[in-house]
Amino acid sequence: MADRIFAGAMLIVTLAYSVIAFTAISAPFQYDPLGPESWPRILSIVAIICLLIILWKPDTDEIGVAGQTWFRLAATVVLLLAYGQLYEPLGFILSTILFGTILSAMLGAGILRAVIFGIAAGIGGYLLCAVLLDLNLPQGDIIEALFENAPAEQPANAEGAS
Amino acid sequence: METVLSGLATGFGVALDPFNLFLVLVGCVAGTLIGALPGLGPINGVAILLPIAYSLGFSPESALILLAGIYYGAEYGGRISSILLNVPGDAGAVMTTLDGNPMARAGNAGKALSLSAIASFVGGTFAVILLSLFAPVLSAFAVTFSPADYVALMVFAFASLASLVGKSTVKTLLGALIGLMLATIGIDANTGIPRYTFGIPDILAGIDFLIVVVGLFGMAELLTLVEQQVSGRLKSLPVDKSFVNWADLAKTKWTIVRCSVIGFFIGILPGTGASVASAVAYGTEKRISDNDGTFGTGDVRGLAAPEAANNAAAGGAMVPMLTLGIPGSGTTAILLGALLMFNIQPGPMMFSQRPEVAWGLIASMYIGNVALLVINLPLVGIFARMLTIPQQYLTPMIAILAFIGIYTIVGNPFDLMMITGLGVFGWFLRKLDFSLAPVILGFVLGALFENNLRRALSISGGDWWILVGNYKSVLLYVLAILVVALPIYLGRRARRMEGDAV
């Protein structure tokens, strides 16, 4: 059943893919016998055949995930999406502290330990990656705004660090 | 022979540069650490560290040397969790648990770890030596391949993938198609027409390879960890003081040699990686030398066989990747993508155009093998500590590492959303028994496949018969049909014979 649902959903996506390949994609002029649309057309036809075979003869009945696990998975995905959204506005350190604390607490760490882990991950990660390895991590719009509001003692420094 | 020696001299000149030597060591240690994390297989470890290694801004050969070190280290780290936890990090390590874990339970954990290190070292070194002999010859032959031959080669690669990897042929094929379809997103390089971009500027240039790798492997792995999370920590067996002795080595020496040969040649076949090699090697060794039925109860030969084959296959998989530009396994597909990111097209021309990269990589594999043996024999106890990191801290750490890696590529938060989305998709694929290696292989090979097909038809002016125009492509199509048909035929026959017996 799970196979059929997945194959059905994939079939809709693939059909949309093939409709676009057969109608929308075209080059205004070209010299080659195969244009940009030919390859997606071939792929979509083969993929549709594969999907029909799976719909006809599915082999995975169910994926065996309990209701509570679904909830935990969904919460993890929501947390990841929120982490991604807040990455630039809050900056690496703050968003990582929040994310690390909430996720580790959700997965069963004690509150105090989760907070310690979050802070260690946020500050340690920033020191290791942005300072030591010189990688590009967001400093955070909020922190930058604070820097700008503060009396501009060392604007060159703030600029250089971002 | 002369090209091999001069090539190796170039390569060691690059790899023995003090900075590069340092990178091999760093890569081996970092790879072992991340590979030893419970449940996190080598391929996921490489996927998570790859963007960070890329963003450090080294020259291509240094970055590749670092990556090769990580790859080797992760492969090694994976076996620590197989032996001590009985949790295989990836499909290739399943066979290692069969005899490795019983040995550790019988109080020989130190012996099992050191023996597996030596078996891997021999298998890996053997494969690198054969690789340096084979690769120049094969690449000299591959220069004569026409676009039509490349199309045939690609069909053969996907056919062997479909027939040998994963549980269901159709699903493996569909996985490869999903990868190929993902690769068509973005502006078509030949005509400048955007395809499937829906006006979203972030994907005009196509989906970045790193995003697909980290999403499908790293993030999907993370969701699997959350799903399977058992409260508290997994029970790890302690590393004791026992060590491999000469009697064990004498007992396993022919096993190691045989399995190295098996592993290397299975690894060369496109699409089949370490998992097939270690299974075949274990099976063969069991048939040859398991006279008193000790395999599966902690026999040293049962541990040495898959380990030697595993690493020999990892080297063998490099042969088609370096000479033809067609990776033999999921992990080499990732390395191929890494080469492409540095604007190096792997394939027959690489040995003549970028000898310092090709040979530098090969030389660093020699050094990486030695470095791992030296690092791991004394330090294995420290690496084994990684196994006791509780899941509730490990899972957020993986996410943080993945986000750092992806963000540092171009600094676009949209990419973070994409890896999360691809992670969910990859998790569903895994739950439905799709294997993910074909997806990544399809994604990496998509552009190459399409461009060669279009080029072939441009040469013939639209005549499709060019695809079967010479003996090389015809031979490859015949091989492709054989590799799909033979297992089906053998399976039917075996079933029929069973039926007769009843």
TrEMBL record, chain A:
This is Putative tricarboxylic transport membrane protein. Keywords: Membrane, Transmembrane, Transmembrane helix. It comes from Tropicimonas isoalkanivorans. The chain crosses the membrane at residues 7-27, 39-56, 63-83, 89-107, 114-133. It holds the Pfam family TctB. InterPro entries: DUF1468. The lineage of its organism: Bacteria, Pseudomonadati, Pseudomonadota, Alphaproteobacteria, Rhodobacterales. Residues 7-138 form the DUF1468 domain. It comes from the Bacteria.
UniProtKB/TrEMBL annotation, chain B:
The chain crosses the membrane at residues 21-40, 52-74, 112-138, 150-166, 173-191, 203-226, 261-282, 324-344, 365-387, 393-411, 432-449, 469-490. It comes from the Bacteria. Residues 21-441 form the DUF112 domain. Pfam families: TctA (PF01970). Coiled coil: none annotated. Keywords: Membrane, Transmembrane, Transmembrane helix. It comes from Tropicimonas isoalkanivorans. PANTHER family: TRICARBOXYLIC TRANSPORT PROTEIN. This is Putative tricarboxylic transport membrane protein.
